[in-house]
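How a chain folds remains the central question behind the approach discussed here. In the encoding step, the backbone of a single protein was reduced to a row of integers, each denoting a local shape. We regard such an encoding as a compact summary of how the chain folds. The sequence in question and its structure tokens are set out directly beneath this paragraph:

___
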Amino acid sequence: MRARIARIARRPIQTTMTNRPERYGSGMDASDDSNRWLDDMLDASLPTEDRAVANPIAGEAGDFAAEPMPVHGGFCNGRLFYPFRVERRRAMDGGGRGPRMVHSYETLVVRSDGAVLEASTLPSPPGTPSSQRVHALTDGTRVAALPTPSRNPTWSLDAINAFVAARATGTDPCVRQPYEILDDVHRMIGSKVSLPVTDDMWVAAIFVVVTHMFRIFNALPILLVQGDHGTGKSELAAAVANLSFNAVTMGQGSAAALVRLMRECGGLIVLDDAEVLGAGFGDLAQCLKTGYRASTARKPITLPGGRVETFDFFGPRLVTCTRSLEPILASRCVRIASACGVPAMRLPENDSAALRDELHVLAMARAAEVARAYAEMTMAMCDRKAEIWTPLLAVVETLGSEAAQDALRRARSRHSSLV
């Protein structure tokens, strides 16, 4: 019943920790007992050990910290957020001609505890420019802009509804163990292409999981696939993108195109055959150099009318090329080599859409655990190499199998000896 109500209401329902008596005793005050039940109410979808409090809508006057959250893959107070679009149908009075159905597209935001939220622009003083208006979700979380769904959404509506229903009943939305999902990602990528170093297949699989929770991390590695023509670079990039978070392939393009794609899609951007990056100059190379870190991924863009707005383009990147990158850009990369003459390990075709849905659920359900592991690991970071490997390590130490953990350690050690 809770699951059915949650599907209709699109938000978590509440339950009480106090057992409700079948009837009141002769000396029991019904109103007092009801108040006690209300005091004990908890969101059924929120584990008691992870009840992060969202930023409330301020009820008093004053100045407060302005820290709006990017909605695409957003992470705030231990929770992930994902915007999605639905077609909403309503029956309305047809004015004497009977009821008629009206349709509209609506953008909603699912939170990792199962709440489904809407967004609005808060009231502002008369004459306030649009760039200074405050936007917030219904839970009070401030967002950088009214949410728009990705142009390339990778989480199906059926899977979102199932996730919300599982959270409403207090059950784990992950049907399988996290390491089993990671193992399937590894097998699916391996069914498309083979690599000369088998450990690199695990690196690619772990990177896929990182894309689904990338806002947790302060910095991300650029996954560099390098090798001669015809060695399967594009095939590997396509296999990774097929399972990653809101992934899109850019091909040849400019820094402005990369920023625009990040704004519209909000996930992994694949730069295939990016030979122009070999020299390390130009706006695109500079954009990649600064975009790997959340604190520096900002670019001012001139909009129509001359207004300048700063866009956040932090996010995961995958680059394929034949030539080596210049040292500064290469220092932000985790390199995977491709080679000729290595046959792919062909496996039966799997349902990539279903596995991608599982990855979204896994990220939502385990984001807080990964964030805690990452916070502990960042205390020991001492250089850029540690900075770009730590997100991969945090994911595999929290969610991975022993095989994945051992492979990542060997890959990191080998990468350090090559740099």
